[in-house]
Fold D-xylose 1-dehydrogenase (NADP(+), D-xylono-1,5-lactone-forming).
Amino acid sequence: MSAPKTIRWGILATGGIATTFTKDLLVDPATRGVRHLKHTVVAAASSSSAARAQDFLKATGAPADAKAYGSYQELVDDANVDIVYVATPHSHHYQNTMLALEAGKPVLCEKAFTVNAAQLRALADKAREKGLFLMEAVWTRYFPLSVYVRDQITAGRIGPVARVFADNSVASNPEVQWKDGSNRMVNPDLAGGALLDLGIYSLTWVFQTLYHTQPQEVRKPPKVLAAMKNYGPTKDADETTTIVLSFPRPADAGGDAHAIATTSIRVATSPAGNQDIPGIRIQGPDGEIQVFPPAFRPTRTRIILKDGTVEEKNWSQPGPGEGSGWHTGFGGSTNAEGEGHGMFWEADEAADALINGRKEGRYEGLDESILIMDVMDETRKQGGLKYPDKIETTKYPTQL
Ligand SMILES: NC(=O)c1ccc[n+]([C@@H]2O[C@H](COP(=O)([O-])OP(=O)(O)OC[C@H]3O[C@@H](n4cnc5c(N)ncnc54)[C@H](OP(=O)(O)O)[C@@H]3O)[C@@H](O)[C@H]2O)c1
């Protein structure tokens, strides 16, 4: 076998998810059976100072010779960077991703890809014009668990999917946790609210089971009916959003199918941390597939067939393992010693695409990301939620 190819990453932003992603990226891919590629981090940039980028590199365990930049421009201009990972708030993704594409860099950009579909269309056009790889970092799509669920559907285990319930809700205490309203979860200037941050995962489950599993030539956009409740103190950020979708499907594929995607920062999929309630239910005439919370990082599935058969599976996240002294996690939670977070699967996909010349992610191409942004635009239109012009604009560059 030939030597693994190493992909050199540049990390754009130094916040919570950039830290988790970078730590995962530096886990040896052999721990998950991936032997044809490796990842390294050659640079990170902070919008505030090079010192902050240096601290970030140290905290994530990046190689000692990785460069620390105090501006995103320097990062995208670094000739040693093969691909840029964009991990700023969603309000900034359009500007930051365009910056990288303009500099000729492939990009893996955090979810939600952009604030609206017009911005994403402009990014997709730019990537296609320049022949550059571009992918939304919806990591869950690349989990072996998600591959398994899609395979069960296409193998016909539950018959044609007739209905999907998908919830991703995290009860927070916004008036206390994000009291001054500046946090990106509730701040309209940072495209705050449940839909773009959490609801994207409810829609991910709907689309990856009801849409992505259909042959490409018959996939059609869904009809959308939405209800939205805004968060009082900051007004233009949604607190709870509910979307009913109807997917047109050929009669011989089961006919039209329905989905309900829900999200909230006020109530939880897992009340009091009880994870026994399936947040995702995929229903067909022959049975049901259940996925247990959290929707973004699930580790448990159950299939219940019409004849009473029950198949339960647990999906661990690989990593350096027990005794390694290595820990990761996100926000306030820490995973078990040596257990990865699961962000490396999407990084492997991006690296593999660079090695093999693919320009999009295999499990969610740009057109599907655009369609999901269209659904979120329509949801916001029906719910009357508009963000400030400066973050909805496609004008590039715009100073944010
Ligand atoms: N995949 C997942 O599981 C997951 C989880 C959480 C978040 N996310 C996504 O990742 C993105 C970042 O979320 P996060 O939780 O990492 O946010 P965060 O902790 O607030 O970090 C965001 C970073 O962006 C940079 N930034 C640049 N301009 C900014 C501004 N005006 N306000 C705030 N930060 C600014 C800052 O780093 P520098 O200025 O130093 O560059 C900051 O540390 C969001 O789009 C979110 O949806 C994904």
